[in-house]
Structure formats: C-alpha cells, structure tokens
What does this fold into?
Amino acid sequence: MKTITIDDELYGFIASQTKHIGESASDILRRILIDELGLEAGENPNVDVSKPAEVNKEVKDINKIKKSREVQTKEQQTSDEIVNASSLFDLLNQETFDQPMSKVERFLKMLGALHQTHPDRFNAVLEIKGKGRLYFATDKNTLLKTGSSTNPKQIPGSEYWVVTNNNTDKKCTMLTNTATILGYSKSNVERLGKIFKA
It folds into this structure.
C-alpha cells in the first residue's frame, strides 16, 4: 500500500464520487480510472505509468470524445425539441382557439395536441400527481376512485384520461408540467401556458 498526498480540492472531488457508504478513496479512483480508460475490472492498463504525460494525454483524449458525444447528444435533443415544438404549435394553430370554448375544452385540446406530438412518450404524464390524488390515468374509473368530484374526461385522440375539476391555474400547471416532462424548453413551456390562459 502506497500513500500519496493530494490537495483538498482533489480529495473533495474524489469524495463526491462515492457510490456507497464505506467506499475507499482507492476504490473510487480505481472505478473512475476503469470508467475513463475503458478497462475491465482487474485488467491492467496498457499504459506505461512511468510516463504520466502519456497517461494524461490518453485521459484527455477520452474526455474530449466523451464531451463531443455529450455535445452531439445535447444538439440532437435541442434539434428534436425544436421539431417537436414546431409540430405542437402547428397543431395548436390549426385549432380555432379564437372561437368561444371553455377552459376545459381548451385544456383537453392542448393535451390532445401534446399526445399527438408524442404518442410514444405520453405515458410519462402518469407520473404527474397531486397530494394523494392522481391527475392522469388510462381509464376513467381509476380517476373516479381518487376523489368525489374529479370529473374525468378523455384526452382527445388518446387512451388517457385527466381530471378536469381543477381551477384554471391548476389546469395550466398540469399542462405545463406535461410539456416539461415531455422535454420542452422553459420558453416553449411558458408559451404553451400563455396560449392556454389567453
């Protein structure tokens, strides 16, 4: 066993990488190096440790590749979000929101547009809940069991149901939470809320 001296900042970083109670600094560093260098557990690195510059270069190269992948992923997510937002707002523009309709009708139409834009991911709305109360379900009876006056309605074009007896602000929050959970940016979530409240 060798002893090394490290500064407080590096020690703090190592400690922050702890995955379970009692994990030693040596175990943490070994895990980080295995992850960074792509080694299997127990495998020795094919790096001459007597040449730290080469080790640093290899780690830096790996970090550059990881950062490049993260940037590409982020760019793809941003691109997807722009396409999805464009599709969603095109659908909403086709709706005649300038015609008289109740907030419940507007709420349902906007949720229907979100479902139409994201049919494969819309089940994430089932995670949106209130204090001891479900807001979304895949059947009416589930929502009826959660309260005496939930007034569940089916979201147009979907198999999902939503409670509709909430006030306008709560409906807006449910709508914007839905957009957020589906991956929309803060600005597009706010835009959706403004359309609902208009």
About this structure: Residues 36 and 59 are 7 Å apart (CA to CA).
